[in-house]
């Protein structure tokens, strides 16, 4: 057997014998062409001696189109730019340079990738200029171009976000300062309370009322009012400190200042959730001024009611007391007229006629005053009143009195049923119909009654074809004793429309007129569908 050789075995892996001028040069050229950066080499005479594949792709120029040409001939816009200056310094003095994206005014005019084309007209580049020493060719200049468009885009976005964040912080600070100023200068006391019973005053007014120098009982009252205060040991506040029932939704409490002055406060409570806990915002509003106004209004209303009652009693008493002497005067004047008519001279007959007419007008005026005084004092409770039946009764009354020719009162369609005092509504519409007939031609006078509904009310119209009313008198005709004509022209006391107005007011309605001289008049009685509380209380 042969002894194994003691010489070391050669590696089985094949090796390449690369010389500097042969395969190695091809390998280096391939590596440069496949690099993900642009590689450009310039000879000492400033002409391009290397142009890799990356540059061909981004510039759109093949290597055979640019080799042997100066860079400023390939890209004329770089003639006086930062790149040309850096190349000059590199070849002349051997100085390296780096051109950042911020100096892209002098960068190479390379096209950006498609995804950046909408935002960038040219590629954002970082260019490194570096000298290369060779044995045969002297000093070369290399340009390494990196595409930093994505980084620039990110930088722009970060700068924009930073600016927006700074603006948001500024606005937030401004809003916070404004909120603090509003809280400090508001007239209401504002506090915040958590569900553990801790109460913190937020402004000076709250500190004044609930702070160390404020009302010690007020904090306890606030805790008592909070919805989640069941688990906190709280003593109920004194009854005289709660001014309203807790079930009303509007809570009023009484606070005591350090000087001993009582201050009525309106309490409003709202809640919000934060830090997985409930918190409450309590607003305390000083309602002293409002309470004083309410008391003043109540006192004024009581005085008005007392005054109205006294006036009604006076009107009723005066009218009632005037009845007896007037009745006696009227009876004797009528007796004189019957007994001595034609037996005296014409002047005496005229005087007797004036006396009888005067007593009769006085009698009618007193009767109307009594009716007016009874509207508010002797009204009946409100019940449903079918207006069709009511106008049937009105037409029958006029026919019985012989004061309306057949067909002069026209009722169109169906009239609604309203809530009210039937006897007063009868008087109201009877007066309006009577007015329409009185101020119309006795033979051709016509009164039309019709209605129209609104969402909240019934509107009943009484239209005539009479002499009409000048618009300047549309308000004054509803005042007592306001007449637009003399007693000799049209009969009446001037109280009829005042009675109509008072009846309409008692029913919570509105009485108005639309008219022009010579064009007739249309009176509108608007009665609410829902009975007002005021009207109900007065009617009982």
Automatic annotation (TrEMBL):
Its EC number is 2.7.13.3. InterPro entries: HATPase_C_sf, HATPase_dom, His_kinase_dom, HisK_dim/P_dom, HisK_dim/P_sf, PAS, PAS-like_dom_sf, PAS_fold. One of its GO terms (biological process) is regulation of DNA-templated transcription. It catalyses: ATP + protein L-histidine = ADP + protein N-phospho-L-histidine. One of its GO terms (molecular function) is phosphorelay sensor kinase activity. Residues 24-94, 175-211 form the PAS domain. The keyword Secreted does not apply. It is an enzyme of class 2 (transferase). It comes from the Bacteria. Gene3D superfamilies: 1.10.287.130, Histidine kinase-like ATPase, C-terminal domain (3.30.565.10), PAS domain (3.30.450.20). Pfam families: HATPase_c (PF02518), HisKA (PF00512), PAS (PF00989), PAS_9 (PF13426). Keywords: Kinase, Phosphoprotein, Transferase. PANTHER family: PAC DOMAIN-CONTAINING PROTEIN, PHYTOCHROME-LIKE PROTEIN CPH1. This is histidine kinase. The lineage of its organism: Bacteria, Pseudomonadati, Pseudomonadota, Alphaproteobacteria, Rhodospirillales.
């Amino acid at each position: 057997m042969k002894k194994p050789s003691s010489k070391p075995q050669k590696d089985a892996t094949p090796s390449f014998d690369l010389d500097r001028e042969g395969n190695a040069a091809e390998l280096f050229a391939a590596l440069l062409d496949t690099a993900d950066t642009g590689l450009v080499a310039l000879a000492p005479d400033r002409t391009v001696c290397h142009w890799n594949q990356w540059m061909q792709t981004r510039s759109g120029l093949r290597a055979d189109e640019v080799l042997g040409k100066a860079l400023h001939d390939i890209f004329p816009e770089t003639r006086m730019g930062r790149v040309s200056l850096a190349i000059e310094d590199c070849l002349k003095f051997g100085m390296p340079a780096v051109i950042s994206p911020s100096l892209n005014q002098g960068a190479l005019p390379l096209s950006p990738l498609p995804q950046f084309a909408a935002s960038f007209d040219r590629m954002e580049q970082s260019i490194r200029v570096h000298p290369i020493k060779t044995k045969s060719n002297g000093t070369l200049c290399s340009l390494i171009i990196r595409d930093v468009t994505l980084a620039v885009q990110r930088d722009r976005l970060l700068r924009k976000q930073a600016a927006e964040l700074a603006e948001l912080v500024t606005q937030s600070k401004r809003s916070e300062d404004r909120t603090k100023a509003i809280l400090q200068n508001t007239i209401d006391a504002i506090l915040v309370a958590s569900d553990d019973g801790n109460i913190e005053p937020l402004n000076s007014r709250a500190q004044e009322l609930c702070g160390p120098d404020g009302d010690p009982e007020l904090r306890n009252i606030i805790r008592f009012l909070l919805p989640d205060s069941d688990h906190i040991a709280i003593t109920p506040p004194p009854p005289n400190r709660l001014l309203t029932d807790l079930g009303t939704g509007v809570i009023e409490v009484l606070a005591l200042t350090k000087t001993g002055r009582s201050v009525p406060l309106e309490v409003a409570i709202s809640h919000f959730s934060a830090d997985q806990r409930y918190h409450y915002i309590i607003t305390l509003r000083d309602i002293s001024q409002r309470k004083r106004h309410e008391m003043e209004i109540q006192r004024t209303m009581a005085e008005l009611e007392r005054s109205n009652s006294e006036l009604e009693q006076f009107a009723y008493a005066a009218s009632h007391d005037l009845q007896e002497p007037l009745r006696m005067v009227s009876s004797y004047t009528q007796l004189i007229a019957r007994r001595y008519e034609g037996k005296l001279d014409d002047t005496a007959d005229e005087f007797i006629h004036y006396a009888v007419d005067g007593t009769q007008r006085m009698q009618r005026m007193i009767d109307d005053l009594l009716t007016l005084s009874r509207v508010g004092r002797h009204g009946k409770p409100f019940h449903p009143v079918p207006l069709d039946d009511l106008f049937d009764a009105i037409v029958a009354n006029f026919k019985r009195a012989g004061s309306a020719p057949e067909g002069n009162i026209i009722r169109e369609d169906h009239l609604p049923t309203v809530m009210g005092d039937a006897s007063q509504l009868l008087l109201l519409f009877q007066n309006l119909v009577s007015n329409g007939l009185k101020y119309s031609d006795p033979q051709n006078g016509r009164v039309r009654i019709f209605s129209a509904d609104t969402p909240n009310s019934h509107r009943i119209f009484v239209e005539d074809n009479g002499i009409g009313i000048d618009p300047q008198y549309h308000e004054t005709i509803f005042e007592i004793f306001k007449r637009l004509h003399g007693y000799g022209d049209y009969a009446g006391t001037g109280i009829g429309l005042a009675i109509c107005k008072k009846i309409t007011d008692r029913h919570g309605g509105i009485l108005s007129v639309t008219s022009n001289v010579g064009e007739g008049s249309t009176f509108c009685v608007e009665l609410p569908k829902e009975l007002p509380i005021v009207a109900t209380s007065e009617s009982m």
